[in-house]
Write a structure and sequence with these properties.
Length: 67
Amino acid sequence: MQTKDLKTHLMITMTKKRTQNKENYYYIFWIVAMVAFIVPQVFTAYGIMKVTDFLENKVDKVILIEQ
């Protein structure tokens, strides 16, 4: 009877461990996906800000020649 309890206990712990690994991979996947989605957006926003600053500076430096 003790051997049967040991087998049952081992099967339960092995099943729980496998499920835990799947959960860890799930969280790792979503963290990587979130970073891969957010980082390009940050770079794009930074680039757009730099372009608008550049264009605003160009507009400030326009010389008007009156005839």
